[in-house]
Hints:
alpha+beta, Elongation Factor Tu (Ef-tu), domain 3, six-stranded antiparallel beta barrel, 30% strand
Amino acid sequence: MGPGAPWLANVSPAARKIRNVNISPLRELHESLGARLRPAEAGGDVLTYGDVPAEVAAGRDGALLFDRTTRGLISITGGESTDFLHRILANEIKVLEAGEGNRNMLLTGKGKVVQLFDLAYLGEGYLLSTAPGAAQALKDALDMYLFAEDVALGDESESYAPIEMVGPRALSILAEVLEDAPDERGPDHTSALATFGGSVVRLVPLQVAGHPGWRVEAGPGKVAGLWAALRDAGAVAGGLVAFDSLRADTVTGEVGRDISENVYPQEARLDDAFSLTKGCYIGQEVVAKIDTYGGLNKRLFRLRVSHDDPVAPGTRLMRDVNGEARDLGIVTTWAYSFAEDGGVVLGYVKRKHQEPGTEFLLEGTDATAVLQE
């Protein structure tokens, strides 16, 4: 059993080996409730429950529920696990108390992002919650830096099935459904334990689509009942369309879409996921140099599009400079922004072209994109 993963006690070893971690255990429930889903071979994500404006409104004014059950989970245990993680990961390790955590990264030696994840220290070891499909790659990457240390790496993804909530009513709904839920939202990544249906649930306050929210970890055996109970208590079920709309408004990048090994942390606005004071770690020298001297070649921004049609990832941002059409950026995410009442994109824009109001042409079209922030 992984450290601090109490839901594992309710899952038999045989059941852990049956679940396909790439498919949500809630998929059949979503289908029965009429949600629109991506095909299974494309991940099966919920796109919407049918009313995107209501979903976005719930995220801002009520409580919005997201299926995040295909996230991965790595456990790190052993007497030297703290020293091991401290010397390779970008954010703080040794200062954490049991129950605390942070957003953290593994970087390349050149300071670019290899993996972005949520780290939790639970006294007897660490848990790393990864983007969907990233757990094995993170485990392999960590293993490359292991020599003779007393450290054990485990993949707990088959027994991990978190859901997330965002919105000002989220905590009151959690308190209605869970026993011993906290009375108030503590600092991000400071977890608390509650109970649902006689089983232990871990609650993690963190940013969801760039807004204060919660991750609720009950395990695959309880997650369907928990999902239903939260909806019955007033939470609105939502999908990727609403998720993208909310995160676009806060210029929040997503792993595999806006964040990859091609970017430095500061380019992707990941300043909360690394430390400038903890000492040496992989890529630290480059990160510190960028902080001291600047010189980023590009940065993630939101741009308002002149139409509401989707814009494909990879579309180039062009601009006329001294009579020459120049490639000055790339689109990574399109979303419909209800705050802007129109289409927006997230994209990387090159240095010297980052003033708010700067207009770009979307390559291959007559449409424009105006930089907002």
